[in-house]
Amino acid sequence: MYDTASIQPAFQPIEQGNPADDGRAFRRCLGQYATGVAVITVKHDDKLAGMAVNSFSAVSLDPPLVLWSIRRESASAKAYLEASHFVVNVLSADQVETSQVFGAPHPDRFSQVAWTPGRHGIPLLDGAVAHLECRLETVYEGGDHLILVGHVDRYVRFEGEPLLFAQGQYAVTQNHPRLTVAAASPSEPIAEGKVPTFLKLLSITNQHMSALFQEHRQALCVTAASTRILNRLFESPCGIDELERSTYLGRDTIEDVLGDLVAQGHVLSDKGTLFELTAKGRRTSEAVAKRSAEFTIEKLRGISESDIAAAKRVLLELQKR
Amino acid sequence: MYDTASIQPAFQPIEQGNPADDGRAFRRCLGQYATGVAVITVKHDDKLAGMAVNSFSAVSLDPPLVLWSIRRESASAKAYLEASHFVVNVLSADQVETSQVFGAPHPDRFSQVAWTPGRHGIPLLDGAVAHLECRLETVYEGGDHLILVGHVDRYVRFEGEPLLFAQGQYAVTQNHPRLTVAAASPSEPIAEGKVPTFLKLLSITNQHMSALFQEHRQALCVTAASTRILNRLFESPCGIDELERSTYLGRDTIEDVLGDLVAQGHVLSDKGTLFELTAKGRRTSEAVAKRSAEFTIEKLRGISESDIAAAKRVLLELQKR
């Protein structure tokens, strides 16, 4: 048992306040709720439009209704409001690039991805885990956004894992750690019970080490997002598009973190288009890499070198299978 | 590159149709969009209410608005519609049990979890990754549900990982596999480049083997959900509450899968409250376990026994750290 009710640790707030006082901090808070990623496609006046959103939500089973929200000021808002139908393409774990193409300004999005025309000629993106062909039913007011409610005329579910967006970054799902432990040895705890199969052991150990590494990083007050950005800039200066491609962070997160890094003197910005590390930034980046390496060394301490070498051989061999 | 646009495999639909023809299949399709889990709490007529939902969505930054949906026929609908305020508690990965308490009928939910009264005395659940204290702004029609839009007066973000609900089961996030590979060795591919650190190697190998195992299971036409239910019932007969606790599947999924297993003659139901395996069910369960074991044996074939033994020692030792 490590549920809230049983261990009751101290839950330290990271940020809090009135959303009106700090919109960026409020957005980071909203990012605690994980979502899938959907690309909403539409055809209007014989032109195609598509937009990546994480505001999709199922509403009703009978009648079958779903909703999503669009910024009032979005250049595509007119197309979605005037078209009679739209399609919700629920992206698979393999479609980060598709999400990026439909998440940033792009001259010709539909030449960048494979798709098939569905009813009314609206694009169905290949490789999605679900297509929902919808008739626009109602539009509700939602502050700086409009809430579009669609009636689902037809659904298709495909094999595959969903893409996630959580805490400002792309991610994929994994089984809950407690399920893995329980499933490994249903009747007895692992430590004293029988040794689980090698692959189960691999999975459990990996989850354990990831959790320890996360604690380690939190103790250093370095976020995963800033580490990834520092690492990429350590290689060479680059722009936001390249950071998006290489870090798997959302654009808003990248802009937030870059703002902080510039303010702290870690990063220099060339007119906001090219970013490079300062001498201070290079030192910080090296220090973070050094501490990561130390973490590995510390965790492996006391295990014989020949065992570690054998374990490496096994892991490398498994990767070829 | 293994994005859709580049490899273009054949995407086989699993289920498709008009939602009106098969509500269960439509619900499974909606489950392809991953979500977090939020418990919405409220105080009305001096009574507390709370409900786990996965229909939460951010709507607007300025003004700060969020929404969620409630079944019209829910016993708690009156409380949420008449109360002036509600709280969105975004659950952490540790709070599966909290989600279960607030997802099924329960006599006294608030005695089962730790909480603190917030503004207006509405419960803030301890251990959540975010609290959003909201004023009910608008209620919109949404078919068999009502859409409640709240104005966020105050937000708190906490350290921690979010709980996920995807494809009918509880899960947690993990870094995108392509990020892990890229981060392991930025400048050269792993196969021919330098060996990454041991812990990175552990993570990459685990992801690779998980993907292979998933393919293996798909080829056998056995779903993860039915495997977990068969495994639990193989131990002893039990009811839906126990299946929920031990399989980390959602209630809807459990009911769906049990219905199929009963129809196929794998499971017998005692008045719908107690479920047990038939002789056929036991044979299927054993066959699935056997094939899992064969998968491990096949993947380890050709690796020396002494290396495997050494690797096991290393993994078991790491779990103690």
Provide a descriptive summary of the structure in words.
The structure is a homodimer of 321-residue chains. The first copy, chain A, has helices at residues 4-7, 23-30, 77-82, 96-101, 177-184, 198-219, 224-235, 240-247, 251-263, 279-300, 305-319, and strands at 13-17, 35-36, 38-44, 47-53, 57-60, 65-71, 85-90, 115-117, 123-125, 130-142, 145-158, 164-166, 169-175, 267-270, 274-277. The two termini of chain A are 36 Å apart. Chain A has a domain at 35-166: Pnp Oxidase, Chain A (Roll), CATH 2.30.110. Chain A has 321 residues and is an alpha+beta fold. The radius of gyration of chain A is 23 Å and the shape is globular. In chain A, a hairpin with a 5-residue loop joins β8 and β9. Chain A is 39% helix and 28% strand. In chain A, α5 (177-184) runs antiparallel to α6 (198-219) and α7 (224-235) crosses α10 (279-300). In chain A, the strands form 4 sheets. A 7-stranded antiparallel beta sheet of chain A has the order 4-3-7-10-11-6-5. Chain A has a 3-stranded antiparallel beta sheet with strand order 2-12-13, covered by helices on one side. Chain A has a two-stranded antiparallel ribbon with strand order 8-9. The interface between A and B is large, with 147 and 148 residues.
Keyphrases for this structure?
homodimer, 321 residues, globular
How are the secondary structure elements laid out?
The structure is a homodimer of 321-residue chains.
Chain A: H1 4-7, E1 13-17, H2 23-30, E2 35-36, E3 38-44, E4 47-53, E5 57-60, E6 65-71, H3 77-82, E7 85-90, H4 96-101, E8 115-117, E9 123-125, E10 130-142, E11 145-158, E12 164-166, E13 169-175, H5 177-184, H6 198-219, H7 224-235, H8 240-247, H9 251-263, E14 267-270, E15 274-277, H10 279-300, H11 305-319
Antiparallel strand pairs in A: 2-12, 3-4, 3-7, 5-6, 6-11, 7-10, 8-9, 10-11, 12-13, 14-15
Helix pairs in contact in A: 5-6, 7-10
